[in-house]
Write a structure and sequence with these properties.
The protein is mainly alpha-helical. It contains four helices and no strands. The protein has one domain. It is rod-shaped.
Length: 97
């Protein structure tokens, strides 16, 4: 009976750590993507051409990095996705002009 509890405990601990690792890597990847798009937007003159999208992308990315550093990987990924979206919108607007 005790062996069954130990096995269940081990499986739950392993499952918990594996899920937290997945959040870490996916959030880190999304932050990297957002950073690249923000740099591309800045290089295209986004600060002056599309200031709203640029400031939004920059702000969301900064807050995402703070959340990531505090170990809140879910919110960090969500904020990085919003940063990516804002940067993509800015780049699309610049390409229209």
């Amino acid at each position: 009976m005790k062996k069954g509890y130990f096995t269940l405990f081990f499986v739950l601990v392993f499952f918990t750590f594996s899920l937290s690792g997945c959040y870490y890597f996916s959030a880190n990847k999304e932050i990297g993507t957002a950073g690249k798009l923000l740099a591309e937007l800045k290089g295209a003159g986004g600060e002056k051409k599309v200031p709203y999208e640029y400031c939004s992308a920059e702000g969301f990315l900064e807050v995402s990095k703070v959340e990531f550093s505090q170990g809140d990987f879910g919110p960090a990924k969500a904020l990085a996705q919003r940063s990516t979206s804002a940067a993509q919108a800015g780049l699309a607007e610049i390409r229209k002009k």
